[in-house]
TrEMBL record:
Record-given protein name: p-glycoprotein
Domain of life: Eukaryota
Listed InterPro entries: ABC_transporter_C-like, P-loop_NTPase
Transmembrane segments: none
GO cellular component terms, A-Z: membrane
Alphabetical keyword list: ATP-binding, Nucleotide-binding
Organism: Leishmania utingensis
Keyword Transmembrane helix listed: no
One Gene Ontology MF term: ATP binding
Length: 102
């Protein structure tokens, strides 16, 4: 009792990144005692999560903190960050490195 989880399946897929950041900050604050499971394709949506799971063809390919995976040059997640291009990948990496507790 007193614990629970929130499941969000592409909840912010159709909104702009600024509003997505506001929603993520609200979710992290309002539901800090909950386990939040988020299904997302946009990396900035999950950049500040504690752990992420990268799926590849329906199979768990890798799991770890965004920082751990971004720092591994052979990781799928690292490749996804690089594929964003110089400016957007820098934004995502800034979000990852500014995460508290990392």
């Amino acid at each position: 009792r007193g614990s629970g989880f929130i499941l969000m399946d592409e909840a912010t897929a159709s909104i702009d990144p600024a509003l997505d950041r506001q929603i993520q900050a609200t979710v992290m604050s309002a539901f800090s005692a909950y386990t939040v499971i988020t299904i997302a394709h946009r990396l900035h949506t999950v950049a500040q999560y504690d752990k992420i799971i990268v799926m590849d063809h329906g199979v768990v390919a890798e799991m770890g903190s965004p920082r751990e995976l971004a720092e591994r040059p052979d990781s799928i997640f690292s490749g996804m960050v690089e594929a964003l291009g110089r400016i957007e990948s820098a934004r995502v990496l800034q979000m990852i490195t500014s995460t508290k507790g990392e």
